[in-house]
Structure formats: structure tokens, C-alpha cells
User: Fold these one by one.
Assistant:
Number 1:
Amino acid sequence: MKRRSAKRIIPGFGISLGLTTSFVSMMVLIPMLFLAVQSSDAGWSGFRKALSDPRILAGYKVSFLCSFAAAGINSVFGLILAWVLTRCRFPGHRLIDGLIELPFALPTAVAGIALTALYSDKGWIGSFFAAAGIKIAYTGAGIIIAMTFITLPFIVRTIQPVLEQLDEAYEEAGRMFGAPRELIFRRIILPELTPALLTGFGLAFARALGEYGSVVFIAGNMPFKTEIAPLLIMSKLEQFNYDESAAIALVMLVVSFAVMFGINCVQSRAASFSGG
Amino acid sequence: MRKDVWIQRLLIVVSVLFVGVMLALPLIVVLTEAFSSGLDVFLRAVTDPYTLKALRLTLTATVSAVLINTLFGLTAAWAVTRFSFRGKGILSTLIDIPFAVSPVIAGLVFILIFGRISPLYPFLEAHDIKVVFAEPGIILATVFVTFPFVARELIPTLEARGTDEEQAAALMGAGFATIFRRVTFPHIRWALLYSVILCAARAMGEFGAVSVVSGHLRGKTNTLPLHVEILYSEYQFTAAFAVSAILAAAAVLILTARNIVEYLAHKEDDFNVR
């Protein structure tokens, strides 16, 4: 009884919960149910096509491989950036720190055309590679660059708070005992960062997988080669092929939810570990 | 020890180069391309009636998304953190879903609900209500994509605060309005401002979801990012970059505002600790 009365002391329970549930039902629950019903209407034939058509399979492959590569690149550079931003002070420190969120603030279409302009054969960066006979824009490399741009903040910003709280005394102790730098990094810093690194990787991967705006400009969108799965959903829709686009969407959603679920597991394990 | 210093310098150089090439260069290229054919061409593209119409729709969608999601964020944060009830976990998961959904899929969902194949379509048709391929669809898609932004920022902030202060105020007879205004709001105002800024940024730049529901009707359902795409695909590169420059300027403004808010919030925290 005591707990029950305690929770009702603060006013506004009914109205806030009521409003929240209606918002969530209208914006999330009902839309998701519609998608589930629509894709089940497509039946097994729709799904079989979404899981067996070679062009669609190639689309998944491009999406997954490029997202994985982008999240990997950002894990390496994100770790370095987070370390430099928390441990070093240098001129331009604040500017770099402030710029990290640019991919969140810059509209993806703008990022898309800017990156295409930079990496095409005549662009500032692309022309260097073109001289060496390497094409970046309109290839898989271009897709990876767009995805790297768009997911850059995720890993930096998940690692940074952990590094800030990490007690330098452990590193100091390791150094006092004469441990080499590599060993200190591998045995002391990295284990502390692993949950944050995995979380950041998962967030970046999921975001890159769904990304459309920045990728379509630089990708070239060649079937079987540089056609990403979200673009397939888009082109099926333009052909009024609702069943197939819903089926592809459901496959992508299942993967995203699996990644999100994995992140939750990593985080709750890390929380219970540090909590004792 | 000397080697440590060198490694540190190397890492700083790597970071600066990476940020310079990946983040600063795209921003610079937008500006140089926008002005590459002179100021006249830039001004003509920016003041083009289609651009202005797109700007108006972008502003409408952004303001709607910010208003709706702020209201939702506040009620959701109040319900989830101030009370315990059954199904709280499920509610939190549902709030997060739009983060996991690709924008293109978000757009697709609204086509399924309000489009030609929807069971609602005959009703909408009979009453001449247009949702997809019209402004309401654009606004809905934008709201969906930015739905969790405010709630996700406020919930941890309120959670960390606990409910003691509100309970004390309620026991002393304060009503909801007084508690919220005098007790809760001062703790969450920076988080609220911060999340509103992020929400506005995302709403302004949304492309995938809006692209699906827009039907690409120029002058009717065009937002600025869609206008950029249309100009670009018509090979009007300078005009596309000119419109992009407006959005890039807005992005830089948003980043600056974000950094100022973060700075002020930190300063206040330090002050409170002392």
C-alpha cells in the first residue's frame, strides 16, 4: 500500500501516461502494425522473392559490407579522436570537438552532393586517385566514404564519456610497473572501452544500413554493384510494387532490431558488471 | 618518455587530418561550388520561387516536428520517470523504435497507411483528404523520424534526479503546474534546449522519409533537401550547391548553438557544485 500511495503523490499520472500512450500508438505502434500486416499480405511468395531474388540479395550484400566497413573505419579513427579530444590540449581543440556533430546537423542530401563533388574524377580528392587509376565516386568505396561521414559522431561520442571517467591512475600504475605502452593499452584501456566501442559500432552500423540520402548521390546505383537495399525499397515503390518493398523493409527491420537488441544486451551487461 | 610525446603528436595530426578531410572539406566544397559562377547565379538560385516555397515547407515541417516532439517528450519523460507502472519497459522500447527504422522504411509505412493500397484510402478519397504526396505526409514523416529525440534526452536527465523533490513539493500541497514550473523545469531546461536543437537539425535535413512520401511534386511537396536533389539531377549543379549553402549555413548555426548550450550547462553545473 505504501508504494502505491507513494507513486500517486506526484500529480499528473493519468494525463501524462494517457497522452504518451496515444502519441506512441499513433506514431509508432499503428504504423508498425500496418507494415507487418502489409508484408504478411505479400505472403510467402513476396518473402521468398525478398530473400532469393539475386538483385535484392546483391543489394543486401552491398549494404551490409559497406556499413560494416564504415563502422570499422570509424571504430579506429573514432577511438583515436576520442582519446585525443579527452587527453590532449592543442590549438583548434574546441573547433575539432565542435565539428564532430556536423554529420548530425548537415542535411544528408547536402553531404551526398558535397562528397560526390569531392571524390568524383574531377574533384579535389578524386582527381588524385583518378591519376593513379582509382575510381572512388560511383563505386563501393564511395558508398563507404558516405557512410563513414554519416556515422562518424556515433563512436567518438559513445567512447568520449567513458574515457573521461576512466581513472588515469590505472595507466599510471601500469607505467610504474614498467609495462610497455602496447600492453597498457591492450590490458588496461581497451577492456574498459569495449562495451562503449561495441555500442558505438552497433549504432553506426544500424545507421549506415538505413542511410539513403547521402549514399544515393555518390553510389552510382548500378544494379548488383552499387545498389543499396534502401534504394531497392524506393525503386520497388516507384513501380507500385508495394508487397516486395514491404518485404524487403521487413528484412531490414529485423536486422536493425537485432542490432539494437544486441546493443541493449551489451549495455545491461556492462552496467551490471560495473555496478558490482 | 620522449617517444610518448611523439606518439601523442602523431595521433593529434591523424585526428586533425581525419576531421579536416572528412568533415571540413565537404563544408568548404559546398561554399566554393555555390559561389563558383559568381554571386549573381547564387542569388538567383536562392531567391527562385521554388526555392522559397521549399524553404517555407521545410520550416513548417521543422516547426511542427519540434512542437509535437517537445510536447510528447515532456509527457513521456514525466510518465516514465515520475511513476512506476506495468508495461513501462515496452513503452520505452516503442519510443525508441523510430531510431532503428531506416528513413526510407518510415516513408514506406506512411504510404502503406494513407496511400492507394490502404484500407483507409476510399474514406480519404471520399472526403478529399490528401496525406501522402501532400504536405501532411511530409510533416508526418518528419515527426516520425525525429519522434524520440526530446524524450530520449529528457528521460535520463529526470531519471538521474530522482523523485524526492517533486514528492516533497506535492506533499506540501503544490499543484502540477507549480511543481513542473518551479521544481522540475529548472533541472531539465538545458537538456530540453539541447534536444530541441538536435531535433530541429534532423527535421530540417530529413531526406529519405520525406522523399518517399513527397511524390516529387515541385512547388507543392518540395522541401529544401528534395529541391537540392531535383536541381542536382537536372545538372544545375551551381544552383544545387547554392541551395545546399543555405542548409549548410543552418547546420553551422545549429552546431554553434549546440556548443553554446553545452558550455552554459557545464558552467551552471560547476557553479552548483561549488
Note: The two ends of chain A are 31 Å apart (CA to CA).
Number 2:
Amino acid sequence: MAAANPSPSEQAASVFALYGLEPSFEIDVIDLEDRLRQASLAWHPDRFALQGEEARLKAEDKMVDFNNAFPMLANPAKRAELLLNWLGASPTQGTDAEADPAFLMQMMELREEAEEVQAAASQNPTPALEFITRMREAESQLLAHFAAGFTALSAEAKAQAGSAAANQEDSALEVRALRRIFYELRYHQRTREQLETTLQPGFNQIP
Amino acid sequence: MIELPTLPMNDGAHAGGPILGIDLGTTNSLVAIHDAGGSRVLADFEGRASLASIVSYPTDGAPVVGEAARERARLDPGRTVHSAKRLIGKSVQDLGRELSTMPYRIVDAPGRSLAMIDLGERLLSPAEVSGQILAELRRRAAAALKRPLEEVTRAVVTVPAYFDDAQRQATREAAKLAGLEIVRMVNEPTAAALAYGLDQDGAEHVIVYDLGGGTFDVSLLQLKGGVYRVLATAGDTYLGGDDFDRTLVLHAAREIQERSGQDVLADPAARAALRMAAEQTKIALSNAEEAELSFHDPAKGIAYRATINWRTFQEAVAPLIQRTLDCCARVLNDAGLSVENVNEVVLVGGSTRVPLVKAAAAQFFQRPARDELDPEQVVALGAAVQAGVLGGTVHDLLLLDVTPLSLGIETLGGAVSKLIQRNTAIPAQAQEGFTTSVDGQTAVSLHVLQGERELAADCRSLGKFVLNGIPPMPAGLPQIAVRFTLDADGMLRVRAKEQRSSVSAEVEIQPKHGLTDNEVERMLTDAWQHAEQDLTTRRVVDLRAQLDIVVAAVEKQRTLFKKLEVTQLERLEDALEEAIDAKSIDRPDALKGILDALEEASFPLAELLMHRIASETVKDRKVSELLDSESSA
């Protein structure tokens, strides 16, 4: 990472570029895995075991970049976050979605329900398991919304023959909507994961 | 397009002699080599492939390794060390209930949190024991390859996937003691997958179920185009065939107690003998409905004989087997796959010979498990394949592994901030920002942790280090970037840097759980030339000098003592007193312990001092000035 302080948008673009890809929500994971294999065969430090410290460390750095980038591209939720960064709408900055009272209310209700099914789980785990299934369904639906929204946005940008950034004014609303979907997705995911760890204590208790 | 390297890769030129493939096991160890004929295990001159991982230390003469040491186990249990791998890189506290089953005495090394074996006249580290085993394998390989010993200096050594950083560090040190450089550490289950060469068969998702003498590991791999990519791994470092034996030992001991009122477990020699009898019974139960467990001790008047039937044994070990299956469920869950996705199941480790284990694995994965390669040799053979990859004799094959345990930093209130999650592909790197909590703070203490639990106290501590030299700033202003780098061996480097100030403070640590370079140096001398008195004397002189310096430094700040909390003050006074009394001590270990204790006890004092200096500096400058210097930095 030689560039001096690249912006989150530039950083996101470079994650795609590392794998020879354009920023897009549509990623074929099998193809991505093939690219990882190709990169590993070229850059894994084991390929330079006898080439001295310098070559090995350079390879290690390169391999670290590929390894770090892989889950960001392969995991749909992380990919959504990456694309928001690319659009200059980093989900860690700005709080408009959290300030939306309807959204807050909805999320609070979700949490309350999670706490209820969790408390009851020792007697009857069925509601908790049903809740988890419902969360997973909601998550994939939110991802589908995100994908559709992002695709429409980039098609629009292409039609206007400019980059997403050049049409900032026009697309600002759509980007905000995408970010709102992402927050909702992340909230569902966290609520579910929290419940899962409490239901399966063994999963979290490795010595 | 993906950028490709312009550097030459490994080309098969054997510049530094052969690279051995070594399986350093809990009960048995093996050495293998990969050459034109493929991978093969190197046997000793009597044709034995495996070396018992036992070292005996006679009071007179050199240590004895292997079968000869096993024979001495009965004779001299207190000086015969088996299962050193269970102790390596661990503290007495880590070992817990396991302590009672070891016939030799285990103590904490003074001033350090690593378990040592007490031989009476000296303390023996588990790394030294493993070092003896590795040295024996090295000699064996040199003889088999008809090479001078000096040319046999490099090895790929396997470790359980679940070994933490301290255990890996200690294994590396053991190799150093044996005159071997570990060019790569490979996780055992992954090595086994390499030995099977399953990518030729078109299997895409492979489970390696590895139940050894002392540890259980399970890994899920994706195989494609010669690349072995580990997707997830899980395991239990306290579960193995020895635990099966233990259920039988405890069963017999209970019955003996009932019949004769004698506690055989209290006597190390009897315990060792009973353990061996139990192992025989377990093996016999592999092919028979029932087997005998007998134990005689004429001196105590014990003649115990019992018939253990298969069903009793099954009931006793069922909970142990269930624990292995829980781990299997966890790897599938972590990789987001289910049982139906698994194309192949490979069994590794001597304990998978137990038919109950084989059946349980096959049932869980709904397919017959493969075990055509000798489960005791398969790991060493795989290590040799990896040695071939590194040496350039094996082409078009690559192993991509993951870290089994999450790594993080302790944050305020004893929580853990995880930088690298378990099952992250390695090599890996992660960075996170931290800041100070007190105005003018010039030092932060960073506590590096490994494990899945949420609280620092429940995770494995890999070491604490202090980042000094931060210019005084209001709380929350400093930006301390902590960077973790995990190399392809799964070894951690930590680096911390304050980024706001023009003064860059930086530390690079090796977690200090392992041995210091001085200690390794001492052991090397011990191992090859027995007691080297000169070195000890020099260390004693060095340590005494260091003690004097610290004592003087602490005494100088006596005026600050009253600001310490009562417990802190008591600890400091105790440590000081001990340090002053240490003049007559001439054991470096003991001196080092006293020095460490004093340094630790004086830490609160150092903090007080730093705060005072820091606040004085800040007082003299205006806040705006401070901020200006920040933004220009």
C-alpha cells in the first residue's frame, strides 16, 4: 500500500483491482476462488522458501493483500460494505440511517424479540431456531434489494456516461437508500449471530 | 489481471542439504523424506519406522531416547518423560487436571509461566525433551541418507492445527536445540491431506479427522488444481487416545481401591505401569469383544484382573468421541457447508484405529472413511511432501492454511478486541487503532491474546508489552496503530506505532511466553556439553548486576511509595527485600525470577513517575500549542 492516504473509495476500488475485477455486486465466487488460487500459486511465500528473506517478505506482503481482500469480495455482506465505500458512502461515517426513528423502532423490536426467544431457549429452543431462520431469510432478501439497487445505480451512471462520483447529486438519494439497506442487513446479521453464540455455547468456548 | 512475480521461484536446487519432514508426535515421532521416488519414512538401523516420544534422564550419563527410554519408564518413572508435547508451551495452570496423571513432577519455572519437569537436581523444559527427540530423528535421517550430520539442518515439522502461538514458539525452540531450522511448520491434518494426494481423485471437499495420542484436530479442505486450501479447522488440545487409556486407568484404580483399599494412582511407578496395561487392553479391544486388564504389584499385595467388555469401553469413551464430533460440526458451520458437501473423509492418528472412532466418523459424515495409508505415518509423509514443495522437487502443489484461533488485544475493562478472526487465511495482517485514557499518558500497555472467548481472562495470554515514548497529549488524542502479522507458519509479529506525534514509537515483539535467546543458548550448551559452569557463572554475574541497577532505581523513588495502593506497596516491598537478599543466590533461574518479580512489582511506580513527568510537561504548554503540534505532525 504505497499510495499516501488513499480515500476509502480508492481503497475499495483497489480491492477489486487486485483481483482484476471491476467494482460490482455480481461476483462469481467460483471464479473468485480460481483467481485466489492463481494468485497463491504466484505469490505464496512457500514459492520463495529458498529465495532469501527479502523475496519471502515481499511475497508475504503480496499474499497478505490477496488474503485480506478475498473475504471482502466473497462474502456478500462484506462486498456490500465495500461497494458503499467505493460510492463514498462509508457505512461507518454518517448516522442518518440510525437517526431515522422508524428504523430505530424496528431494530429495537427485533432485539427485544431476540432476547425473549433467547431467554426461553433453555425450555423450548424452537422459537429461537425459527427466529434464526427468519433472520437468514430477511438477510438474503436485503442482499437481493441491495444488489438490485446497486445494479440500477451503476446502469444509470453508465447511461449518463459518467462515473458514479460525477453524478453525485442525482444518485445521492439512491446511495442513501443503499446504505439504509446495509444498516438493516448488518443489524439482522448481528442480532442473529449474537443469538447463535448464546444458543451454542460450545461454539464460543474453545480453550 | 493479477500481477505476477518477476522473481525466480524455488527451482529444486538443493543448496542447503535435504529438508526433512518430521512428525513430532505425542506418543511416537517419525522422519520422512521426499525424493525422486516420492515420500518415504526413514527407519532406524533396526528397521523401526517410528520413534517412541519418550526421553529418560539417568542420573549418570546421557539422556536415552525411544524404546530404550520406554523400558526405563517402569524403573525410573520420575526421570522418564513421555508426552512432553502435552506440556510444551504451557504453564502449570494450563495443564490443570492433567498434572495428576503424569508420573514425573511438574513445576512452574521461577519467574516465568512455563511448566518445567523437576528432575531434582535441575529443571528440564519440555522443549529440551522434544529437542532430544528431534536430535535423534536428525541422526537417524543423516544415517539413512548417508549424509554427514552437519548437512542435515532443515526440516518441515508438523504441529497440531490447534497449537497456539506459545506452543509453536516452543516447538521452534526445540528444533533449534536439536540443530534443526524449521523452514516451515505445517498443521498435522493438512500434512495428512497432502500425503493422500486427494486432488488427483477429483475430491473437492475433504475432511481430515485426526485423533492422536494427546490431541484432536479436524480440518476441512478444498482441493482444486493442485491447491490445498484449508477452509476451516477446529480441535481440542486436551483430547486423544491417552484419554481413552485414562478412562480404563480410572476404572481399574477405582476397583482396586474398592477391593484392597489402596490408591495405586498415588504411586508414580504403579501409575505408569497401569497406564501401559490399559493401553494394551484398549488395543486388544480393537479386534475382540472383550479384553483383559491386569495389574500386579507384589510389593503392595495387589493382584488385579478384570475383563473389560467392548460395551463398557464404548460407554466410557462415548463422551470423548462426541467431543470430536462437536468439533466436526463446528468446522462445517464455520465454512458454511454441510455434511452432504463432503466428498472424502480421511482418518489420521493412531487412535483412529479404535473401531468405535472409525464408525462414529463414518456415521457422522455419512460415508466410509479412508484409512489406507498407515495413520501413524501419514503425517510424516505429508510433511515430506511439503518439504518437497519448499525445496522445489514438488511442483504444482501448494498448501493454503488458516489460523485456528482468533488473535486480539485487551481493551478497557478486560474485554478483547479481536484483530484476526479464527479460520482467517494465512499469511494475514490486521491493524486497529487504540488511544490513551489518561491525560498526558506517555506509555500504554498492550496485552496480546489468543482465543475465542470474550474476556481477556479467559483467553490465552501471549504476552504484554509497553509502548513508551508517546509525547504527552490529552486523553484520546494519540493514535496508536497496532498491527498483527501472521506468517505462513501461523507465527505472530506485533507492532505498535503512535501515529500523531512526530516521534514515532515502535515495538516489535515475539510473544515472551517462550524461552529467551539466553535460555536457548544455555540449553544448547547444556544439551551438548552437559553443565557448562562458565556460562552459568557469567549469567549469575550479569543478573546480579541487573538486579543492583533495578534496586537502586526503585530506591531512588522512595518518596513516591506513599502514593501506591497498599497491595502494590506490599508487593514492591516484598520484591525489594527478596532482591536485596539475593546476594547469596547463584542459580541464574532463581535470580531471573527475582528480577522479573521486582520489575513487575515496580511497574505501578514507573507509571506514577511517568504520569508526573507527563503532567509537568503538559502544564507548561497551552492546549492550543499542543493541538498545533498535532496537526503539523
Note: The CA atoms of residues 574 and 598 of chain B lie 9 Å apart.
